[in-house]
Amino acid sequence: MKRKTFFNPHLKGEFTSMNRILKSTLAILALAGILAQIQTLQAGIATPSAVFTITLAAGNNFIATPFARSEEGVGTITAQAGSTLTVSPISGPLSYTANAYGTAADEPYVLEILDGAWIGYSAAILSNTANTITLPAGAPSDLTGAKYVIRQDWTVESLLGAAASSSLTATDIDAGDDLSSADQIRLMDDNGTLGPVYFRALWGGAYGWFNENGDNVSKARLPFGKGVFVKSIGSKSLTLSGIVRASRTRMDIVGGKKINLLANPVPFAVKLSDSGMDITPGTTVGNADNLRIWNGTGWTSYWRNATGRWTVGSNTDASSVTIPAGSGFLIKRNSNRGDLKGVDALKFAAAAVAP
Fold this sequence. Notes:
Layout: H1 18-32, E1 35-40, E2 46-56, E3 59-63, E4 71-81, E5 84-91, E6 109-113, E7 122-124, E8 127-128, E9 132-134, E10 147-152, H2 156-160, E11 170-172, E12 184-186, E13 198-203, E14 206-211, E15 228-232, E16 236-243, E17 249-251, E18 259-263, E19 270-271, E20 290-294, E21 299-304, E22 310-312, E23 316-317, E24 322-323, E25 328-332, E26 346-348
Parallel strand pairs: 11-13
Antiparallel strand pairs: 1-2, 2-16, 3-15, 4-5, 4-10, 5-9, 6-7, 6-10, 8-9, 12-13, 12-15, 13-14, 17-26, 18-25, 19-24, 20-21, 20-25, 21-22, 22-23
């Protein structure tokens, strides 16, 4: 089948009190009516499993999944050489199949740290042996002794649904339509610019997920912790499901006034004052780092003043403003400030989820 190009010039861009944490999380989920069931691992880590519905408005939407995918293994890191970790599994497979979690796997896998100084750190798994896991260059050098979990990360298909049945609107390529007739999905890349368009289409008699070049992107990674831009043809509902994490989330930030589209990683609204995000304060919105929340037609900017209080406008208290459940939000650093990555990464630590 001949490949089509669908370019549109207008589309420019510390685990120390886990039981307490989980009880608090479960109480909030029950009150919110989204708790579905409890799954317990051999390691004694209870992980609430739930469903959540996002309402998409016609036009621009900035969404996020509040869930991770299920754990496939838990263990302890016993040694480290560069980005290669020697591990001792304690739940799931007790000896790993070589490269079952690496880049050659059918789905992208990530390793997440569950305790210690690096709690909430996660990274894609490049390769593995029976008792080692290799992460990308730049991984923290002091992970020995930490507990970890292995899980699949989200893909277009696993998050948004199989192309044949997803609730997102598809275009009919067979009938001569193009991507402008479909809901469009985009991520912000690591350089702070919008990435390629993904969309659902009927093509060659079958539905699939494609990019502008006609490539199949059903397995393209949609990393947990990142927001997703959805330009919707009309209003509709999108139902998400997964595992509620019980630790904070670390989010790498690109500096120099570039845009970072991030996710509220919990299934409930979080007050700015409870988020734990200590973006750099200032004396005005112009010289402070900004957090921006979509209001349906545009972005409202929030910033921290010299005392650290969340503020909107010139000096209005915004401490009680919430980042809605299921939403993405922006972080934009002041122009003279660099990246926040690794040990300096932004930490989202909603009070009900992290210690």
